[in-house]
Write a structure and sequence with these properties.
Helix content is 80%, strand content 0%. The protein has a single domain, classed as MFS general substrate transporter like domains (Growth Hormone, Chain: A, Up-down Bundle), CATH 1.20.1250.20. With 432 residues, the protein is an all-alpha fold. Helix 6 packs antiparallel against helix 7, helix 12 packs parallel to helix 17 and helix 12 runs antiparallel to helix 19.
Length: 432
């Protein structure tokens, strides 16, 4: 009885410790995305260039962080697969928190000229590097601690804290936009959300220091040098699994950023929606995202990852364009627009619920931190980080305001094909 209680306590600590790093990471990324128009004006408003160009430069800085995520996934993934999940996740958390807070200290373009956007971009690169080491470790931690038949639920908590981070980011920015004048927000108010990362990081550090190493990793270390050797993972098989995994999560990455992060800026720049209204719509889409994650994870434990994720991808393929058309309609009320983005966010949540467990089940313990972290970060680099850049750039080139929908639909087709290769009973097997 006492041992069961201790095990349950360790499981809960793992869930919380794994989740809180993701919360901070996505809080910051949300803040940067929601403040894109403010950051563009302060750091990327170059002489002789229009607002759209400065916005594109801001998104380029946003995207560059994502391209350093795969490097972080490899560096910290290899560390986590060799020395353990716990010490690696502590290092990643401390570095990510400091890089985030430092953005709040950077002088604006008007003060130090071209050095300002360069410093911001440099800090974004560091954030991307450390964030790349976060996901693989957090998901490995949560799924390796998960009891039999609950990996979908445990993995879903990772995605759920992503939703909470996005909501917290949106909420803080929304609160500041209400409390402060537009001038104050542009002048100094935008710095506050970045400073808030420091106390968050302190709490997260305390939680991670007190957690245990995962049973899966401990078992693998004990097996090394014994007759029962750990499951080997060939480089070729790992690379193949990474490529397949990217295909499976492509629409999750693309739709997630399109609907949850890029939407406020799209509404402002393409549809000329007011800042506060655009932010409100973004908050509602993130609420829809949060509402479906845990139920989708639990459902995938019952009926399998493939069924849940294929259905969600098909719905995104079918509904992406109609939902966008409703948002574009001048006759659409705020309530109708809110319902549309609630549905869109909910569909992304259905992918995000089973997604972490699905990725975890694709890789053996020996390479899990590296494999799933690299797959996820590459997908995010290509289809999330670049979402704002691709969408804004294509709208500028073509004048077609339907680009966000076509972007989601294209990635959905690829993901449906990749997800159909999943085994129906992967959710029933023990992790290797």
């Amino acid at each position: 009885m006492q041992q069961h209680a201790a095990t349950t306590s360790a499981h809960k600590r793992a869930l919380i410790a794994g989740s809180i790093g993701n919360f901070i990471e996505w809080y910051e990324f949300a803040v940067y995305g929601f403040l894109a128009t403010v950051i563009a004006r302060n750091f990327f408003r170059l002489e002789g260039e229009g607002e759209l160009t400065s916005l594109i430069l801001t998104y380029a800085s946003f995207a560059v962080a994502f391209f350093f995520r795969p490097l972080g996934a490899v560096v910290f993934g290899r560390m986590g697969d060799r020395i353990g999940r716990k010490p690696t996740l502590i290092v990643v958390l401390v570095c990510m928190t400091l890089a985030t807070a430092a953005i709040g200290l950077v002088p604006v373009y008007a003060s130090i000229g071209v050095a300002a956007p360069l410093i911001v971009t440099g800090l974004r690169i560091l954030q991307g590097l450390f964030a790349g080491g976060e996901y693989g470790g957090a998901v490995s931690l949560m799924t390796e601690f998960a009891p039999r038949g609950k990996r979908g639920l445990y993995g879903a908590w990772q995605s759920f804290t992503v939703a909470l981070g996005l909501l917290a980011g949106a909420g803080i920015v929304a609160l500041l936009s209400v409390l402060l004048s537009p001038e104050a927000l542009y002048d100094w108010g935008w710095r506050i959300p970045f400073f808030i990362a420091l106390p968050m990081g302190g709490v997260a550090l305390w939680l991670r220091v007190s957690m245990e190493e995962t049973p899966g990793f401990v078992r693998q270390q004990q097996q090394t040098g014994h007759a029962a050797a750990p499951v080997k993972a060939s480089t070729g098989a790992t690379i193949k699994n990474i490529l397949v995994a990217i295909g499976r999560v492509m629409v999750w990455s693309a739709a997630g950023y399109t609907y949850l992060v890029i939407m406020p800026t799209y509404l402002q720049s393409a549809l000329h929606t007011g800042f506060n209204q655009a932010l409100l719509i973004a908050v509602i889409s993130n609420i829809g995202f949060a509402l479906t994650i845990i139920p989708a994870g639990m459902l995938s434990d019952r009926i399998g990852r493939r069924t849940v994720m294929v259905v969600a991808s098909c719905l995104l393929l079918i509904l992406a364009l109609p939902l966008l058309k409703v948002l574009q309609a001048e006759s659409a009320t705020l309530a109708i627009k809110a319902l549309v983005v609630l549905i869109a966010g909910g569909l992304v949540g259905i992918l995000a619920g089973p997604g972490p467990a699905m990725l975890s089940e694709m890789f053996p313990t020996r390479v899990r931190y590296t494999g799933l972290g690299l797959a996820y970060s590459l997908s995010n680099a290509l289809f999330s980080g670049c979402a704002g850049l691709i969408i804004t750039g294509l709208i500028k080139q073509t004048g077609n305001v339907d680009i966000p929908a076509w972007y989601v639909m294209t990635t959905a087709i690829v993901s449906i094909a990749a997800l159909m290769t999943l085994n129906k009973n992967d959710h029933l097997k023990d992790l290797e």
